[in-house]
Design brief:
This protein has helices at residues 55-63, 111-116, 118-121, 125-147, 186-196, 232-253, 255-261, 265-270, 281-291, 305-315, 367-376, 385-392, 405-413, and strands at residues 2-3, 16-28, 32-38, 43-49, 69-78, 86-97, 151-152, 158-159, 171-174, 177-181, 198-206, 219-228, 278-280, 319-322, 345-350, 355-362, 398-404. The chain is α+β, with helices and mostly antiparallel strands and 433 residues long. The chain folds into two domains: 2-97, OB fold (Dihydrolipoamide Acetyltransferase, E2P), CATH 2.40.50.140; 119-421, BirA Bifunctional Protein, domain 2, CATH 3.30.930.10. The strands form three sheets. Strands 7-11-12-17-16-15-14-13 form an eight-stranded mixed beta sheet. Strand 15 (345-350) and strand 16 (355-362) form a beta hairpin. Helix 4 (125-147) crosses helix 7. It is elongated and about 85 Å long. The structure holds 4-amino-1,4-dioxobutan-2-aminium adenosine-5'-monophosphate and magnesium ion. 4-amino-1,4-dioxobutan-2-aminium adenosine-5'-monophosphate binds at residues 163-164, 184, 186, 207, 209, 216-217, 220, 222, 224, 356-360, 400-402, 404, 406-407.
Length: 433
């Protein structure tokens, strides 16, 4: 007899199979027991009929505790009533590992309790659905950038540079020298672009931000493509193609997780329609001012969550906001050709209140301009000589951007808080488990 994964049940209808699974829940009456089973590939039901199994097996089934691990033997049948569409008519059960007093019961639990039990909470159906979608977005990212001719470049996690400013750095000591956990792989991606043309980094980044919001993690994963010989306009087209590809891939490969989450697939389908609208920062400020909802809002401020939400709702699609004030953006962005108060950059804002999912820009190419910016940003020039070398030896127009993986997942899954988009979230005041 074959041991199969639950997800493959459709290929084994009316066959007798064996499944290794955990019991998530159970209902029973005099003559029947319903076992809710999961094996990490899907969730489905095992039906144990008193008349079809030995008295020992029926007694065992009725006494099973939540999260006991089992081998279940039985025959697969179609089950129209469930999300999943199949169930197993049980012939035999073998207990593999006992489970007493599993802490996460089917009743409601508070978020802090669930977060303290994140190592177990991951087993629940909703967390399963989110992690499958996370996995698909990662898989599709590699597919997309491979198809577009990119080379994956691994940037270091321990670094001496601070591309996104010095206020939220995690400091550590490195054999008597200062070092930081990487905030962004971008500067290394730029070296990669000068070596291999089109590259992307993908890895964890760290921001010691004292922000306790539903959009901020202390440790998150970022995808950072960087393209030589590419100006901003072409980069924006690449960005929207990438986002549409991710959404389409989730629609194509994650129907079951999306159904578990109750995410509206028609809403997602609209996000695959290109192009996305574009608005300059100047016009965005006017829109916000005219709305009458943002008292005292003036040119020059950075947008917070309410402003980003308003803008994306206004366009009802992901929207690029172009050319922010230079004063609120990092040192490496290309100056505007005719204005010295803005830079050539864009943030992509997601609708439904999810805010900035991508930040990117064309990069400054002039070594003297960059030296000046590094000085003004209060950074140590010696730490950036290698970066300035990229402008000394064959500098070319180039652009890049960073997608926050967990922001993307939170938006696509329609969840209300970023903490559930990563297996073990690192947040302000939380590093356990
Ligand atoms: O806008 P950010 O800070 O841009 C960069 O780091 C650039 N170096 C990227 C580049 O051009 N290569 O961050 C990029 C994205 C944001 O748009 C957001 O999606 C996400 O990273 N992000 C966060 N996600 C979760 N928690 C946080 N604290 C985040 N900060 C930024
Ligand atoms: Mg940003």
């Amino acid at each position: 007899m074959q041991t199969i994964s639950i997800i493959d049940a459709k290929d084994h209808v009316d066959e007798q199979v064996r499944i290794g699974a955990w019991l998530t829940n159970k209902r029973s009456s005099g003559k029947i027991a319903f076992l809710q089973l999961r094996d990490g590939s899907a969730y489905f039901q095992g039906v144990v009929l008193k008349n079809n199994v030995s008295p020992e097996v029926f007694a065992l089934a009725k006494g099973l505790k939540q999260e006991t691990s089992l081998y279940v033997t039985g025959t697969i049948h179609a089950d129209e009533r469930s999300h999943f569409g199949y169930e197993i008519a049980v012939d035999d059960i073998e207990v593999v590992g006992e489970s007493e007093d599993y802490p996460i019961t089917p009743k409601e639990h508070g978020t802090d309790f669930l977060m303290d039990h994140r190592h177990l909470w991951l087993r629940s159906q909703k967390q399963f659905a989110i992690m499958k979608i996370r996995n698909e977005i990662i898989r599709a990212t590699y597919e997309f950038f491979n198809k577009e001719g990119f080379t994956k470049l691994d940037s270091p996690i321990l670094t001496g540079s601070a591309p996104e400013g010095t206020t939220d750095l995690f400091h550590t000591e490195y054999f008597g020298r200062d070092a930081y956990l990487s905030q962004s792989g971008q500067l290394y991606a730029e070296a990669g672009a000068m070596a291999y043309g089109k590259v992307f980094t993908f890895g964890p980044v760290f921001r010691a931000e004292k922000s306790k919001t539903r959009r901020h993690l202390i440790e998150f994963w970022m995808v950072e493509p960087e393209m030589a010989f590419m100006h901003q306009e072409e980069s924006l087209e690449l960005q929207e193609r990438y986002i549409a590809f991710l959404v389409q891939s989730v629609l194509d490969h994650c129907d079951y997780p999306l159904t578990i989450l109750g995410r509206d697939k028609d809403v997602l389908r609209r996000y695959t329609e290109l192009p996305y609208p574009r608005v300059t920062y100047d016009d965005a400020i006017k829109l916000l001012q005219e709305s009458g909802e943002f008292d005292g809002l003036e040119w020059g401020v950075d947008f917070g969550s309410p402003e980003e939400t308003y803008l994306a709702e206004h366009f009802n699609k992901p929207v690029f906001v172009l050319n922010y004030p230079k004063a609120i953006k990092p040192f490496y962005m290309k100056p505007h050709p005719t204005r010295d108060d803005v830079v050539i950059c864009a943030d992509l804002l997601a609708p439904e209140g999810y805010g900035e999912i991508i930040g990117g820009s064309e990069r400054a190419t002039d070594v003297h301009y960059l030296e000046e910016q590094i000085k003004q940003a209060g950074l140590n020039m010696d730490d950036y000589q290698w970066y300035l070398d990229l402008r000394r030896y064959g500098s070319v127009p180039h652009s890049g951007f960073g997608l926050g993986l967990e922001r993307m997942i939170t938006w696509i899954t329609g969840e209300s808080h970023i903490r559930e988009s990563i297996p073990f979230p690192r947040m302000l005041n939380r590093i356990y488990p």
